[in-house]
C-alpha cells in the first residue's frame, strides 16, 4: 500500500512473502531505491527476499518480490 503519492518521498509499501504468505512492510526512498534490488527478511519466517521497486501504472509503484536462495546472497 502506498501512503504517499509523490515520487520523491519515503513510502511504506506492503508485500506478501512468497514462502509463508505473511504481510510485510518495506520502506522505500523512491528517489534513491527505484530499480535497485534490495534484500529483506520476512518478519514471520526470516527467509531472505529480493525486493525491486519499479514504476507502475498511474504513478504508483510496483514492488517486485522474489524468493532468494540464501546460498547465492553475497553480503
Biggest pleated sheet? 3 strands, antiparallel
Based on secondary structure, the structural category is mainly beta
SSE pattern: EEHEEE
Through-space gap between termini: 29 Å
Let me know the number of strands.
5
The neighbouring-strand order within the major sheet is 3-4-5
Shape: globular
Uncertain stretches of 5 or more adjacent residues: 1-8
Offer a concise description of the structure.
By secondary structure, the chain is mainly β.
Task: Furnish the topology, listing elements before pairings.
Elements: E1 10-16, E2 23-29, H1 30-33, E3 38-41, E4 48-55, E5 61-67
Antiparallel strand pairs: 1-2, 3-4, 4-5
What features would you describe in this structure?
This protein is mainly β and 75 residues long. It is built from one helix and five strands, in the order E-E-H-E-E-E. Strands 3-4-5 form a three-stranded antiparallel sheet, with no helix packed on it. The chain has a two-stranded antiparallel ribbon with strand order 1-2. It is globular, with a radius of gyration of 12 Å. The chain starts with 9 loop residues before the first strand and ends in an 8-residue tail after the last strand. Residues 1-8 have low confidence and may be disordered.
Amino acid at each position: 500500500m502506498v501512503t504517499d503519492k509523490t515520487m520523491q518521498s519515503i513510502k511504506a509499501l506492503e508485500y506478501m512473502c512468497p514462502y509463508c504468505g505473511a504481510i510485510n512492510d518495506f520502506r522505500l526512498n523512491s528517489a534513491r531505491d527505484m530499480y535497485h534490488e534490495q534484500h529483506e527478511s520476512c518478519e514471520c519466517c526470516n527467509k531472505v527476499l529480493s525486493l525491486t521497486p519499479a514504476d507502475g501504472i498511474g504513478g504508483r509503484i510496483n514492488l517486485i518480490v522474489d524468493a532468494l536462495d540464501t546460498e547465492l546472497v553475497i553480503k
